[in-house]
Amino acid sequence: xxxxxxxxxxxxxxxxxTSAIGLATARRLIARGARLVHLAGRPSPALEKAAGExxxxxxxxxxxxxxxxxxxxxxxSLGPVFAAGDVDLVLLAFGIxxxxxxxxxxxxxxxxxxxxxxxxxxxxxxLCGAALQEQGHGTLVVLxxxxxxxxxxxxxxxxxxxxxxxAFAQGLGDALYGTGVRVMVVRPGTVLDPGTxxxxxxxTTTPGQVAAAIELxxxxxxxxxxxxxxxRLVMSAVRGLPRPLxxxxxV
Length: 251
Ligand SMILES: NC(=O)c1ccc[n+]([C@@H]2O[C@H](COP(=O)([O-])OP(=O)(O)OC[C@H]3O[C@@H](n4cnc5c(N)ncnc54)[C@H](OP(=O)(O)O)[C@@H]3O)[C@@H](O)[C@H]2O)c1
What we know:
Elements: E1 11-15, H1 20-31, E2 36-41, H2 45-56, E3 60-65, H3 74-83, E4 89-92, H4 100-105, H5 107-135, E5 138-143, H6 156-176, E6 181-188, E7 190-191, E8 204-205, H7 207-220, E9 224-227, H8 231-240, H9 243-249
Parallel strand pairs: 1-2, 1-4, 2-3, 4-5, 5-6, 6-9, 7-8
Bound molecules: NADP nicotinamide-adenine-dinucleotide phosphate (NAP).
Protein backbone atom coordinates (compact mmCIF):
# COMPACT_ATOMS: atom_id res chain seq x y z
CA UNK A 1 0.00 0.00 0.00
CA UNK A 2 1.44 3.41 -0.90
CA UNK A 3 1.76 5.51 2.22
CA UNK A 4 2.41 9.19 2.72
CA UNK A 5 6.16 9.57 2.57
CA UNK A 6 6.23 13.34 2.66
CA UNK A 7 7.68 13.54 6.18
CA UNK A 8 11.36 13.23 7.01
CA UNK A 9 12.68 9.66 6.67
CA UNK A 10 12.66 7.57 9.85
CA UNK A 11 14.69 4.65 8.54
CA UNK A 12 17.73 4.80 6.27
CA UNK A 13 19.88 2.37 4.35
CA UNK A 14 23.28 3.81 3.47
CA UNK A 15 25.14 1.83 0.82
CA UNK A 16 28.74 2.89 1.38
CA UNK A 17 28.52 3.04 5.15
CA THR A 18 31.80 4.90 5.64
CA SER A 19 31.21 7.48 2.90
CA ALA A 20 31.81 11.04 4.11
CA ILE A 21 28.73 12.23 2.23
CA GLY A 22 26.66 9.24 3.36
CA LEU A 23 27.55 9.83 7.00
CA ALA A 24 27.03 13.60 6.83
CA THR A 25 23.57 12.89 5.39
CA ALA A 26 22.79 10.29 8.03
CA ARG A 27 23.84 12.70 10.80
CA ARG A 28 21.61 15.39 9.35
CA LEU A 29 18.63 13.08 8.99
CA ILE A 30 19.10 11.69 12.51
CA ALA A 31 18.89 15.28 13.75
CA ARG A 32 15.59 15.52 11.81
CA GLY A 33 14.13 12.38 13.39
CA ALA A 34 15.61 9.33 11.62
CA ARG A 35 15.76 6.54 14.20
CA LEU A 36 17.07 3.48 12.37
CA VAL A 37 20.15 3.44 10.15
CA HIS A 38 21.41 0.42 8.25
CA LEU A 39 25.04 1.05 7.38
CA ALA A 40 26.00 -1.23 4.52
CA GLY A 41 29.63 -1.61 3.61
CA ARG A 42 32.69 -3.79 3.55
CA PRO A 43 33.31 -4.89 7.13
CA SER A 44 36.09 -2.76 8.65
CA PRO A 45 36.99 -0.85 11.80
CA ALA A 46 35.94 2.32 9.95
CA LEU A 47 32.44 0.91 9.44
CA GLU A 48 32.17 0.01 13.12
CA LYS A 49 33.45 3.45 14.11
CA ALA A 50 30.86 5.11 11.88
CA ALA A 51 28.14 2.95 13.45
CA GLY A 52 29.32 3.99 16.91
CA GLU A 53 29.22 7.67 16.01
CA UNK A 54 25.68 7.49 14.68
CA UNK A 55 24.55 5.44 17.68
CA UNK A 56 25.87 8.19 19.93
CA UNK A 57 23.53 10.59 18.13
CA UNK A 58 20.53 8.56 19.26
CA UNK A 59 19.86 6.24 16.31
CA UNK A 60 19.69 2.47 16.30
CA UNK A 61 22.43 1.45 13.89
CA UNK A 62 22.83 -1.95 12.22
CA UNK A 63 25.82 -2.76 10.06
CA UNK A 64 25.26 -4.83 6.94
CA UNK A 65 28.03 -6.53 4.93
CA UNK A 66 27.91 -5.17 1.38
CA UNK A 67 30.44 -5.30 -1.43
CA UNK A 68 29.54 -3.47 -4.63
CA UNK A 69 32.01 -5.67 -6.50
CA UNK A 70 30.10 -8.82 -5.59
CA UNK A 71 26.62 -8.27 -7.05
CA UNK A 72 25.71 -11.90 -6.59
CA UNK A 73 25.82 -11.35 -2.82
CA UNK A 74 23.56 -8.28 -2.82
CA UNK A 75 20.27 -10.11 -2.36
CA UNK A 76 21.63 -12.06 0.62
CA SER A 77 23.07 -8.86 2.13
CA LEU A 78 20.25 -6.42 1.50
CA GLY A 79 17.19 -8.66 1.40
CA PRO A 80 17.11 -9.04 5.21
CA VAL A 81 17.23 -5.25 5.64
CA PHE A 82 13.95 -4.83 3.77
CA ALA A 83 12.48 -7.97 5.33
CA ALA A 84 13.08 -6.46 8.79
CA GLY A 85 10.85 -3.44 8.15
CA ASP A 86 10.18 -0.45 5.91
CA VAL A 87 13.13 1.59 4.68
CA ASP A 88 12.16 5.19 3.93
CA LEU A 89 15.40 6.23 2.27
CA VAL A 90 18.17 4.38 0.48
CA LEU A 91 21.32 6.40 -0.10
CA LEU A 92 23.55 4.92 -2.77
CA ALA A 93 26.80 6.52 -1.67
CA PHE A 94 29.54 4.03 -2.51
CA GLY A 95 32.07 4.78 -5.20
CA ILE A 96 35.75 5.05 -5.99
CA UNK A 97 37.57 7.79 -7.86
CA UNK A 98 40.41 5.55 -9.02
CA UNK A 99 43.72 6.97 -10.21
CA UNK A 100 43.35 8.06 -13.82
CA UNK A 101 47.04 7.89 -14.76
CA UNK A 102 47.53 4.46 -13.19
CA UNK A 103 44.20 3.08 -14.39
CA UNK A 104 44.89 4.06 -18.01
CA UNK A 105 47.93 1.82 -18.01
CA UNK A 106 46.30 -0.92 -15.93
CA UNK A 107 42.99 -1.76 -17.57
CA UNK A 108 41.92 -4.14 -14.80
CA UNK A 109 42.12 -1.26 -12.32
CA UNK A 110 39.99 0.83 -14.67
CA UNK A 111 37.48 -1.99 -14.88
CA UNK A 112 37.31 -2.02 -11.09
CA UNK A 113 36.27 1.65 -11.10
CA UNK A 114 33.57 0.89 -13.65
CA UNK A 115 32.38 -2.20 -11.80
CA UNK A 116 32.19 -0.43 -8.46
CA UNK A 117 30.56 2.78 -9.64
CA UNK A 118 28.38 1.48 -12.44
CA UNK A 119 27.61 -2.23 -12.48
CA UNK A 120 27.67 -2.47 -8.67
CA UNK A 121 25.14 0.34 -8.57
CA UNK A 122 22.99 -1.22 -11.29
CA UNK A 123 22.67 -4.42 -9.25
CA UNK A 124 22.09 -2.72 -5.91
CA UNK A 125 19.89 0.01 -7.41
CA UNK A 126 17.51 -2.44 -9.11
CA LEU A 127 17.32 -4.56 -5.98
CA CYS A 128 16.57 -1.59 -3.72
CA GLY A 129 14.16 -0.04 -6.24
CA ALA A 130 12.15 -3.29 -6.36
CA ALA A 131 12.16 -3.58 -2.56
CA LEU A 132 10.94 0.00 -2.14
CA GLN A 133 8.25 -0.61 -4.74
CA GLU A 134 7.19 -3.73 -2.88
CA GLN A 135 6.73 -1.75 0.34
CA GLY A 136 4.92 0.98 -1.65
CA HIS A 137 6.97 4.02 -0.73
CA GLY A 138 10.49 5.35 -0.27
CA THR A 139 13.22 7.32 -1.97
CA LEU A 140 16.43 6.14 -3.58
CA VAL A 141 19.06 8.87 -3.53
CA VAL A 142 21.89 8.21 -5.98
CA LEU A 143 25.24 9.95 -5.62
CA UNK A 144 26.21 10.71 -9.18
CA UNK A 145 28.73 13.43 -9.99
CA UNK A 146 29.13 16.56 -12.09
CA UNK A 147 32.09 14.64 -13.55
CA UNK A 148 29.60 12.42 -15.35
CA UNK A 149 28.05 15.24 -17.34
CA UNK A 150 30.99 15.43 -19.74
CA UNK A 151 33.99 13.24 -19.19
CA UNK A 152 37.29 15.14 -19.07
CA UNK A 153 40.75 14.04 -20.18
CA UNK A 154 41.84 14.16 -16.57
CA UNK A 155 39.26 11.71 -15.20
CA UNK A 156 37.33 10.08 -18.01
CA UNK A 157 37.40 6.61 -16.46
CA UNK A 158 35.64 7.82 -13.31
CA UNK A 159 33.57 10.32 -15.32
CA UNK A 160 32.29 7.68 -17.72
CA UNK A 161 31.32 5.39 -14.84
CA UNK A 162 29.32 8.25 -13.31
CA UNK A 163 27.74 9.06 -16.69
CA UNK A 164 26.51 5.48 -16.83
CA UNK A 165 25.30 5.60 -13.25
CA UNK A 166 23.52 8.89 -13.83
CA ALA A 167 21.70 7.61 -16.94
CA PHE A 168 20.77 4.42 -15.09
CA ALA A 169 19.39 6.35 -12.11
CA GLN A 170 17.32 8.63 -14.33
CA GLY A 171 15.88 5.63 -16.16
CA LEU A 172 15.11 3.85 -12.90
CA GLY A 173 13.38 7.01 -11.67
CA ASP A 174 11.20 7.01 -14.78
CA ALA A 175 10.48 3.30 -14.37
CA LEU A 176 9.32 3.87 -10.79
CA TYR A 177 7.39 7.06 -11.53
CA GLY A 178 3.85 6.81 -10.15
CA THR A 179 4.61 3.83 -7.90
CA GLY A 180 5.13 5.88 -4.74
CA VAL A 181 8.90 5.42 -5.02
CA ARG A 182 11.15 8.27 -6.10
CA VAL A 183 14.72 8.38 -7.34
CA MET A 184 16.71 11.55 -6.67
CA VAL A 185 19.97 12.03 -8.57
CA VAL A 186 22.58 14.12 -6.77
CA ARG A 187 25.42 15.68 -8.76
CA PRO A 188 28.07 17.22 -6.53
CA GLY A 189 31.08 19.06 -7.87
CA THR A 190 34.42 18.40 -6.19
CA VAL A 191 33.78 17.58 -2.55
CA LEU A 192 36.44 18.97 -0.23
CA ASP A 193 36.97 18.40 3.47
CA PRO A 194 35.72 21.28 5.54
CA GLY A 195 38.67 23.62 6.11
CA THR A 196 40.30 22.89 2.75
CA UNK A 197 40.76 26.09 0.71
CA UNK A 198 37.72 26.18 -1.58
CA UNK A 199 39.07 27.67 -4.83
CA UNK A 200 36.14 28.25 -7.17
CA UNK A 201 33.08 28.06 -4.90
CA UNK A 202 30.85 27.49 -7.96
CA UNK A 203 32.47 24.10 -8.47
CA THR A 204 33.37 22.80 -5.01
CA THR A 205 31.41 21.77 -1.96
CA THR A 206 31.72 19.85 1.34
CA PRO A 207 30.04 16.67 2.65
CA GLY A 208 27.91 18.79 5.00
CA GLN A 209 26.71 20.96 2.14
CA VAL A 210 25.86 17.92 0.05
CA ALA A 211 23.91 16.53 3.01
CA ALA A 212 22.01 19.81 3.38
CA ALA A 213 21.21 19.82 -0.33
CA ILE A 214 19.99 16.22 -0.13
CA GLU A 215 17.71 17.07 2.77
CA LEU A 216 16.31 20.06 0.91
CA UNK A 217 15.86 17.99 -2.25
CA UNK A 218 13.93 15.38 -0.27
CA UNK A 219 11.65 18.06 1.18
CA UNK A 220 11.05 19.57 -2.26
CA UNK A 221 10.59 16.24 -4.02
CA UNK A 222 13.42 17.13 -6.43
CA UNK A 223 14.47 14.70 -9.12
CA UNK A 224 17.91 16.23 -9.58
CA UNK A 225 20.11 18.08 -7.11
CA UNK A 226 23.31 19.92 -8.04
CA UNK A 227 25.74 20.85 -5.29
CA UNK A 228 26.56 23.70 -5.28
CA UNK A 229 23.40 24.78 -7.06
CA UNK A 230 25.30 27.06 -9.46
CA UNK A 231 26.88 23.99 -11.06
CA ARG A 232 23.68 23.40 -13.01
CA LEU A 233 24.35 26.46 -15.18
CA VAL A 234 28.10 25.94 -15.38
CA MET A 235 27.70 22.35 -16.51
CA SER A 236 25.01 23.20 -19.00
CA ALA A 237 27.51 25.58 -20.64
CA VAL A 238 30.26 22.95 -20.46
CA ARG A 239 27.99 20.37 -22.06
CA GLY A 240 27.42 22.63 -25.06
CA LEU A 241 31.09 23.42 -25.79
CA PRO A 242 32.36 22.15 -29.16
CA ARG A 243 34.93 19.41 -28.60
CA PRO A 244 38.02 21.33 -29.84
CA LEU A 245 37.16 24.16 -27.45
CA UNK A 246 36.33 21.74 -24.64
CA UNK A 247 39.73 20.03 -25.11
CA UNK A 248 41.51 23.36 -24.91
CA UNK A 249 39.58 24.85 -21.98
CA UNK A 250 38.81 21.87 -19.76
CA VAL A 251 41.52 19.53 -18.55
N1 LIG B 1 34.23 13.25 -3.03
C1 LIG B 1 33.94 13.89 -4.16
O1 LIG B 1 34.63 14.82 -4.61
C2 LIG B 1 32.71 13.47 -4.93
C3 LIG B 1 32.22 14.32 -5.91
C4 LIG B 1 31.10 13.93 -6.63
C5 LIG B 1 30.49 12.71 -6.37
N2 LIG B 1 31.00 11.91 -5.41
C6 LIG B 1 30.36 10.61 -5.21
O2 LIG B 1 29.63 10.62 -4.01
C7 LIG B 1 29.68 9.32 -3.40
C8 LIG B 1 30.19 9.46 -1.98
O3 LIG B 1 31.43 10.14 -2.03
P1 LIG B 1 32.30 10.34 -0.72
O4 LIG B 1 33.23 11.48 -0.97
O5 LIG B 1 31.41 10.35 0.45
O6 LIG B 1 33.11 8.99 -0.76
P2 LIG B 1 34.17 8.38 0.30
O7 LIG B 1 34.14 9.12 1.57
O8 LIG B 1 35.44 8.21 -0.45
O9 LIG B 1 33.50 6.96 0.54
C9 LIG B 1 33.39 6.03 -0.50
C10 LIG B 1 32.55 4.88 0.01
O10 LIG B 1 32.45 3.90 -1.02
C11 LIG B 1 32.68 2.65 -0.39
N3 LIG B 1 33.13 1.63 -1.32
C12 LIG B 1 34.15 1.68 -2.20
N4 LIG B 1 34.25 0.50 -2.85
C13 LIG B 1 33.26 -0.28 -2.36
C14 LIG B 1 32.83 -1.60 -2.61
N5 LIG B 1 33.45 -2.39 -3.50
N6 LIG B 1 31.75 -2.08 -1.94
C15 LIG B 1 31.12 -1.34 -1.02
N7 LIG B 1 31.48 -0.08 -0.72
C16 LIG B 1 32.53 0.44 -1.39
C17 LIG B 1 33.73 2.93 0.66
O11 LIG B 1 33.78 1.85 1.55
P3 LIG B 1 35.15 1.31 2.22
O12 LIG B 1 35.19 1.97 3.56
O13 LIG B 1 34.95 -0.16 2.30
O14 LIG B 1 36.28 1.71 1.31
C18 LIG B 1 33.15 4.20 1.25
O15 LIG B 1 32.10 3.88 2.13
C19 LIG B 1 30.56 8.46 -4.30
O16 LIG B 1 29.75 7.75 -5.20
C20 LIG B 1 31.36 9.48 -5.06
O17 LIG B 1 31.77 9.00 -6.33
C21 LIG B 1 32.07 12.26 -4.66
